[in-house]
Design goal:
Layout (H helix, E strand, L loop, with lengths): L3 H25 L4 E9 L5 E9 L4 H10 L1 H11 L9 E6 L2 H12 L2
Parallel strand pairs: 2-3
Antiparallel strand pairs: 1-2
């Protein structure tokens, strides 16, 4: 169960990370749309799990790997944006969000 503080921090991180990734999309993977679907923060606010949806899903592993390699830069940018709201910027861990692939799979199974 997430506390109110964790939920507020999650929303803040989601909003700011979405903006940072929107600006860096051409550098990361041109022609793809990267969406921050969910952010989960640990109770001590030191670690965050960021779930990303990458469309089109072809070659999304390479895009996720590129984002992971840019984690330090992204964390620095995030720190500059949220320096007045948080004392410590949480560690960023990026994970793929496969919900769109799951929906596509279910749709293809249901079609006659």
């Amino acid at each position: 169960m997430e506390s109110t503080r964790q939920k507020k921090i999650s929303r803040l991180l989601q909003k700011e990370l979405a903006e940072i990734l929107r600006q860096k999309t051409q550098e990361i993977s041109p022609g793809k749309i990267i969406t921050v679907t969910t952010v989960r923060v640990s109770p001590d606010l030191g670690v965050s799990k960021i779930y990303l949806s990458i469309f089109p899903s072809a070659d999304k592993d390479a895009a996720l790997e590129k984002i992971t390699s840019l984690t330090k830069n992204i964390r620095y940018e995030l720190g500059r944006k949220i320096k007045n709201q948080m004392r410590v910027v949480p560690e960023l861990n990026f994970y793929p969000d496969d919900s769109l692939d799951y929906i596509d799979n279910i749709d293809s199974l249901l079609k006659p």
